[in-house]
What we know:
The structure is a homodimer of 231-residue chains. The first copy, chain A, has 231 residues and is mostly helical. Chain A folds into two domains: 12-60, Arc Repressor Mutant, subunit A (Orthogonal Bundle), CATH 1.10.10.60; 75-218, Orthogonal Bundle (Tetracycline Repressor, domain 2). Chain A is 70% helix and 0% strand. In chain A, helix 1 (12-35) packs across helix 4 and helix 11 packs across helix 12 (211-218). The longest helix of chain A has 24 residues, at 12-35. Chain A is globular. Chains A and B meet through helix 7, helix 9, helix 10 and helix 11 of A and helix 7, helix 9, helix 10 and helix 11 of B.
Amino acid sequence: MTAVTSKPNEPRGARRKRETRSRLLKAAMTLMAVRGKDSVSINELTDAADVGFGSFYNHFKSKDDIYNALMAEVFNEFGIAIEEANKVNDDPADIISFAVQCVLLRSKVNPLWGQFLLRTAFSVETIVGGMGQYMLKDLERGVSEKRFVVSDPLMSFVSVGSTVMGAISIQHNLASQSEIVTALAEHAGYNVTNIPQRTAATVLQILGINEEEANVIASKPLLDVDFVALP
Amino acid sequence: MTAVTSKPNEPRGARRKRETRSRLLKAAMTLMAVRGKDSVSINELTDAADVGFGSFYNHFKSKDDIYNALMAEVFNEFGIAIEEANKVNDDPADIISFAVQCVLLRSKVNPLWGQFLLRTAFSVETIVGGMGQYMLKDLERGVSEKRFVVSDPLMSFVSVGSTVMGAISIQHNLASQSEIVTALAEHAGYNVTNIPQRTAATVLQILGINEEEANVIASKPLLDVDFVALP
């Protein structure tokens, strides 16, 4: 979520307007992550944001409008930030490994962010206009450069995206429900630590990189990114 | 959904009771698949099922109770039916390939079923008590018999389950939204036919089976199962 900080010489009205907008976006993220876009009313959004019902329309035209703003501001900004950090990498395998771990780490720090992402997975907006476009671009470059060897690119990309989503879900369950930790751990002595790195290694193998190299790439030290401050 | 058919010599009262229960389950599936369990009230369930509010409690104790009944009756029965059909197979790869294709084909025939499954993916109930348990059993047998070669079983299982869920989601979007078909197809000339078979081939490769063999297994003729009549 965009932080609301003072800007020098900003008129009080403009600052308040930004604050209201930010509170509405935060309320939308919280309510829509838990209950889905369709089950949340504008009235509930303004109540949760503690702003008047009418104020909503000073910022957004409709529920779809605030939802799209959330997708654009939160996830697109995250995608851009990760792409920016990733500029030091040239190898698509390094780029994908880092991006996958960022998504998992960000979901760990901000579980609502992860839940919202899970809800929007595989939507047209995510694939074409949202965070999916960044991953898709690097996946396709990796395939065209023959760094990734996949026989069915569409299904491999579905599998990569799904694995990241499944990992977010498992990580979230591990953090919030002792029941599933016990169930999984007892089931076959599964090790449930270090999910971000293991997800990256799994994704690289789906992309045709052998186990040994996938583990080497996935265990490289991560670029320094502040996951709390990220959009 | 369990079909309501006449049973010989069944008293009219018992038959009506079964019909009411079946209508409530059908309404719960429809509403919960679209909006999630938490956003649906018992009142809405009885309205949608066209039964009196009080009747609900002749059949179920609570919203959780009808939800659990749905999980047990619909998904567990499906799991059992697939397991039964799969008895002619001994190779875990054949079993997984068939089960994956059944899930995709069933989701195609009954999109609400698929949507409900997507909602419950990675829940404790699904992994421990629902359909996940059947797949997990075959995955683990495949690993212990060294038919499947995976370095990180937990992550491979997450990846397999997620890939099936992602494929359901993509298949659903392909069927219902021409927009995403256009976007995907135009993006890189992706072929979007035959998703069930391609999902099975992708899953087998995640489990360490080489591309050629995975395609051979996934393209075996399917056992004769009536996906419309299945629970």
